[in-house]
Amino acid sequence: MSSPYEPQEPYRPDQPYGAAQPPPPQQPPGTPGYGYQPLPPEHPSATTAMVLGILGVALCQLIAPFGWWMGKKTMNEIDASGGTLGGRGKAQAGFICGIIGTVLFIISTLFLIVWFVIWGIFLASVESDWDDYEDDDYGYSLVSAMD
After folding, report:
1. How crowded is residue 141: how many other Cβ atoms within 10 Å of its Cβ?
2. Maximum C-alpha span of the chain
3. Which residue in 35, 40, 58, 88 is a FRET match for 22, CA 20 to 30 A apart?
4. CA-CA distance, 30 to 120, in Å (whole number)?
5. Which residues contact 61 (CB under 8 A, 6 or more apart)?
6. Closest among 48, 53, 79 to 64, alpha carbons compared
């Protein structure tokens, strides 16, 4: 046996490594090759659910619950189809974005309610303070002074 550090003989095509292999058999036209699986058709509502979910997060949180609902419904139908329908990723994106948009909608609605309550309390206290200054102890009325 020769050492791996010694120079090797160059490759000579007249000495192949083994007998020639026959080519693989030809497949009839229209059949898939090795490892190729055609994609199933996409569910018709998958893209709609994704668009509703994304718009519910980005623009208008009022449509986010519809993206959530449609995404969940579409995912259930795709799972029940046994692999004959695709588009689960789009439906799942609509489902998740719909949840996020709905949570943002609830938080913003609660914030607005608290904001209006605080402003109502503030305006009610200012109104009652103004009533105190209409007729003071000196017989001088700010209301009549403004006229």
Report:
1. 13
2. 126
3. 35
4. 73
5. 101, 102, 104, 105, 108
6. 53
Look at the block and give the residue holding tokens 């998740």: 96
pLDDT digits (tens, 9 = 90+) for 105-119: 999 999 999 999 999
Rg value, the chain, Cα = 38
Q: Examine residue 8 and state whether it is found in any structural domain, yes or no.
A: no
In a domain, 58, yes or no: yes
**Per the structure, how many domains does the chain have?**
1
Does any domain span residue 20?
no
Of 81, 94, 83, which Cα lies nearest the Cα of 47? 94
Alpha-carbon gap, residue 56 to 105, rounded angstroms: 9
Mean pLDDT of 92-108: 96
Length of the chain counted residue by residue: 147
Express each pLDDT in 21-62 by its tens digit. Answer: 667 777 666 655 566 678 899 999 999 999 999 999 999 899
Give the C-alpha separation, 95 to 46, whole Å: 10
Q: Under a CB-based contact definition with an 8 Å cutoff, are residues 58 and 98 in contact?
A: no
Domain that holds residue 83: 46-131
Do 103 and 57 contact (CB within 8 A), yes or no?
Answer: no
